[in-house]
């Protein structure tokens, strides 16, 4: 109950206080990357229940001669990298928090495509609501491989507390300001989880 109340209060205050910045970011996204300014996608929430996450878009709509979208890496720009490095693209997720689909702190909601690949232990990350930030994000972020990221997610589920959430939120602000744990350049994205598991199986 305390966690939910905290989520609502901070998210509502955040949207109000950050509304001028959100408008500016939205205009910059439209100018630099095109429309729509928001990216939405179905992700698994608590107990694997699907919900639609909302973020600022970070890729262009560039296509090849046959009309197919270019690879993700080719649709990234320096502005895209700035949004991701500063986590500004995640701010619209405050709406998901208010709706009760996410929490401020919890395992990041990954793709629906990844659900078949989790082990029974790793699947415990879905025992709680996904978060805008989490234990994995303040302990290496993209510098960790998938095994480590999932291990940290499960650790959070097993050890969650209100005070741990406060610690994670504080560390998140520090990490974002310092841009710590970001090992992927503007032309490179985090490898897909399913590709990671397939690689391990073939080795």
Give keywords:
mainly alpha; two-stranded parallel ribbon; 4 strands; globular
Summarize the structure.
By secondary structure, this protein is mainly alpha-helical.
Provide structural commentary.
- This protein has helices spanning 2-33, 78-85, 93-98, 146-159, 162-178, 193-202, and strands spanning 38-44, 50-56, 103-105, 131-133.
- The N and C termini lie far apart (46 Å).
- Mean pLDDT is 87; it is low at 183-188.
- With 203 residues, it is mainly alpha-helical.
- It is 43% helix and 10% strand.
- It is globular and about 50 Å long.
Strand order of the largest sheet: 1-2
Order of helices and strands: HEEHHEEHHH
Q: Beta-strand level of the residues, as a percent range?
A: 5-15%
Given helix and strand content, the structural type is mainly alpha
As a whole number of angstroms, the C-alpha radius of gyration is 17 Å
Overall strand count:
4
Low-confidence parts: 183-188
**Dominant shape:** globular
Can you give the helix content as a percent range? 40-55%
What is the overall pLDDT average? 87
So how many helices? Answer: 6
Largest sheet: 2 strands, antiparallel
Distance between the termini: 46 Å
Secondary-structure map with pairings?
Layout: H1 2-33, E1 38-44, E2 50-56, H2 78-85, H3 93-98, E3 103-105, E4 131-133, H4 146-159, H5 162-178, H6 193-202
């Amino acid at each position: 109950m305390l966690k939910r109340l905290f989520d609502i209060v901070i998210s509502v205050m955040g949207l109000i206080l950050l509304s001028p910045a959100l408008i500016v970011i939205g205009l910059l996204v439209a100018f630099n990357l095109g429309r729509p300014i928001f990216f939405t996608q179905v992700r698994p929430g608590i107990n694997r229940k699907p919900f639609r996450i909302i973020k600022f878009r970070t890729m262009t709509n560039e296509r090849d001669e046959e009309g197919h979208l270019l690879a993700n890496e080719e649709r990234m720009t320096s502005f895209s990298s700035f949004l991701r490095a500063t986590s500004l693209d995640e701010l619209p997720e405050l709406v998901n928090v208010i709706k009760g689909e996410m929490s401020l702190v919890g395992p990041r909601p990954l793709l629906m495509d990844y659900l078949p690949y989790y082990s029974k232990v790793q699947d415990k990350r879905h025992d709680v609501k996904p978060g805008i930030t989490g234990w994995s994000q303040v302990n290496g972020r993209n510098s960790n491989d998938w095994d480590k990221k999932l291990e940290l997610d499960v650790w959070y589920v097993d050890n969650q507390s209100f005070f741990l959430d406060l610690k994670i939120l504080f560390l998140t602000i520090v990490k974002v300001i310092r841009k710590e744990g970001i090992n992927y350049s503007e032309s490179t994205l985090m490898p897909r989880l399913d590709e990671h598991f397939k690689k391990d199986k073939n080795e």
